[in-house]
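wait is this the right file?? whatever heres the structure
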């Protein structure tokens, strides 16, 4: 968790799950193609586990690009640890880069969409490859457990998928740096609510990368994560031991460990005065430590999410809304390209605001059998998040 007073354009190190991101119209005038295109689907707030249609065919490679398809080494049968209903598993995959390259697009292909909640891909620099292999080889079975991030020092978020997102295609001249010898870690969040945390089948998901030759000059991209607290009490009609905030945090810690369990307190310190303010809507202000250009945004919550926004300099004469999702749908988490890129200056403030609804617990089949709880930040499908995402350049 970044506990400084501001954020830089580099990745904010928050122990978190996924969400989604992309791009928009190129800098300057004219009629340039959008820096990112993406397709979305889903129209109802019906939760996860509805299967997925076959992905559309990818856009053909452009000049200097090639496709690299990477698949999990073997089918994996997830099992949730510590009495929970979610597993985060990391798999090391090698894109086979012998020279400098750039990742200019991607299309994740979930093999078992009924249990794949989301996926994040972390670029591991050559200096971290040995650490990643040690984690992989030192863990029984395929991959390793990885609540939070990849567990490898120096990782960088370069691609991701959530329901409703398909191919991401960056504009020419923009890409994520992939030095020779880079590895990728595929982090998959498996949602096992339907089976009570037990294995409900296997998964062998893959990703189709769009890789460009590094000899062509490109502007490197970064992804910024903007978290906010979640402090959602039980409804007036609910009661039970987990409606107590301290008990709920203890439960999150038991299921996911101290790094995730400490997020609730860390976010309150970072985003407020250290005292939780229970309610359905929470926000966090993130001062920028440097200049940047934003091309696209996205937001991520779980099944109790109702709305999410990202604002630039709220409450000022120059305020702008970068993301506005008034009716959040878990099954439609596609990227939101900006109509034109937005320039951010050092000292500007980015505010992410989320609204959650505890009443949805009684409406969603996946959650109806679970005991009511005070909901805080947690990595499980039945827990919640408030996460804004920005993709851009420094």
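ok assuming it is, sequence goes like this
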């Amino acid at each position: 968790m970044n506990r400084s007073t501001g954020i830089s354009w580099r990745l904010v190190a928050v122990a978190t799950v996924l969400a989604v991101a992309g791009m928009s119209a190129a800098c300057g005038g004219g009629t340039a193609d959008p820096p990112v295109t993406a397709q979305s689907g889903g129209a109802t707030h019906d939760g996860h586990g509805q299967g997925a249609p076959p992905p559309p065919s990818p856009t053909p490679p452009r000049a200097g690009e090639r496709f690299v398809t990477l698949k999990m080494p073997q089918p994996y049968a997830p099992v949730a640890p510590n009495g929970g209903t979610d597993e985060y598993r990391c798999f090391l995959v090698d894109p086979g880069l012998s020279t400098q390259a750039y990742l200019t697009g991607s299309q994740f292909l979930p093999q078992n969409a009924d249990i794949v909640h989301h996926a994040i891909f972390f670029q591991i620099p050559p200096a971290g490859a040995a650490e990643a292999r040690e984690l992989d080889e030192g863990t029984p079975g395929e991959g390793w457990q990885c609540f939070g991030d990849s567990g490898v020092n120096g990782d960088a978020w370069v691609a991701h998928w959530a329901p409703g997102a398909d191919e991401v295609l960056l504009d020419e001249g923009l890409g994520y740096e992939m030095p020779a010898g880079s590895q990728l870690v595929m982090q998959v969040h498996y949602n096992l609510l339907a089976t009570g945390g037990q294995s409900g089948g296997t998964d062998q998901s893959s990703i189709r990368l769009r890789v460009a030759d590094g000899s062509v000059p490109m502007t490197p991209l970064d992804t910024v994560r903007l978290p906010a607290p979640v402090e959602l009490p039980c409804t007036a009609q609910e009661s039970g031991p987990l409606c107590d905030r301290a008990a709920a945090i203890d439960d999150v810690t038991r299921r996911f460990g101290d790094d995730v369990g400490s997020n609730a307190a860390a976010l309150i310190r970072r985003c407020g005065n250290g005292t939780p303010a229970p309610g359905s809507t929470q926000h966090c202000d993130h001062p920028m430590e440097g200049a940047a250009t934003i091309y696209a945004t996205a937001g991520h919550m779980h099944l109790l999410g109702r709305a999410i926004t990202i604002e630039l300099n709220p409450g000022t004469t120059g305020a702008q809304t970068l993301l506005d999702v008034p009716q959040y749908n878990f099954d439609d988490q596609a990227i939101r390209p900006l109509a034109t890129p937005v320039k951010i200056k050092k000292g500007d403030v980015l505010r992410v605001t989320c609204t959650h609804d505890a009443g949805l617990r009684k409406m969603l089949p996946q959650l109806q059998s679970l005991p009511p709880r005070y909901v805080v930040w947690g990595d499980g499908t039945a827990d919640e998040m408030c996460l804004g995402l920005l993709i851009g350049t420094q």
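Residues 245-256 form the longest helix (12 residues). so i think its the right one actually
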